[in-house]
Amino acid sequence: MSSKRLGVLAIYLSKSRLEELSYFQRLSKEGKKLGVQVEVFTPDDVEGDNAVRTLTYDSGLGKWIRKRTSFPPVIYDRCRYKAAANYQMLKAFRNRHAKLIYLSKPLANKWSMHQILSENESIRPYLPATVRFSSVQDLLKVLKKHKLIYVKPKNGTGGRGILRIEQLGSDLYLLQGRNQQRTIIAPFRATEKQLAIKLHTLKLSPDYVVQQGIHLTLRDGRVHDYRLLIQKNGNGEWEVTGCAGRIGPQRSITSNLHGGGSAVTQDKLLAYRFSSEEKMNEIKKEMNSFAFTLANYLETKFGKLCELGMDIAVDPKGHVWLLEVNPKPSREVFRKIGQHSIYQKAVTRPLEYAVWMMKQKRIKREEQKEQEKTEDKQAES
């Protein structure tokens, strides 16, 4: 068995189907090169205080092997909280196994995150105005102020349940969106009164946030944004791994790849909107600089983190906006645009960071032993 073990905390989509299994397979193959054995498990696979049934990938056999073992000392949490029950189950797991080393900590929901980020003067200019949903009347006031708003579930992922509402004229509005299954809702043109009635039927609650909309529509009518991935490297330091553009399908209000969006390079998408190379370089530099500011600040609030996916918008004037931050980001966007070396880096960095964490733990243990020896000698003399 490899001397280095990395546990990957996952979640079942159905009784036996794990989310992200193809990513875990890739992680296992890359881990082998670094002398790290990747062991995948869910909270359901725990059989005691230090017993768990893990899956390891056998590349020779080309399949996953299940075995009963002790807990791996370092945990890479890839669970996505799509339901409140999942969140509670994972919170209970972390509380029960607090002595394990986790590569990252969970972040807050969209509303709490907005409040936390708003406290920082350097980050505030990058945040679209956001309020918690309270009533349809208040939502309409925000809409009249900004002319374009997005209504999002505070715990939603992958574009689920998001609405886009735009004021087209003095009494003409356009409502678009996706339901909880990510299906595109047919565009709905309405007067203010008709819109209010429609919004009441959608049963919005304080579990939603209302956010200032950024104009992200391209010439062909499709929306776009950027996914920037920043990760800890093998020295435990933040590094921007890459940034790619995402374009939503026709009639979609989001650009998520899971929702049918397509991926393009950052340069290609920037060039589509800005003709000046100087302007493009300026925007790229600002995105990267902001990513470091955000990552460092979030660690002061939540503790050690391993990687962050930032959904970034650039408005027609070139202003950079943060749409969302995700502590468990996908990296498929880089593979889809043919940036295989960046994709490779995106897969290996969590492994390299885990190895660094293990090394730090070993150094700390050795320092403690030395300290104890010195104290014993002093006590004897």
Automatic annotation (TrEMBL):
Residue intervals passing through the bilayer: none
Biased composition, class Basic and acidic residues, residue ranges: 364-381
Gene3D superfamilies named among the record's database cross-references: ATP-grasp fold, B domain
The name this protein goes by in its record: YheC/YheD family protein
UniProt signal peptide: none
InterPro entries according to UniProt: YheC/D
Domain of life: Bacteria
Region (Disordered): 362-381
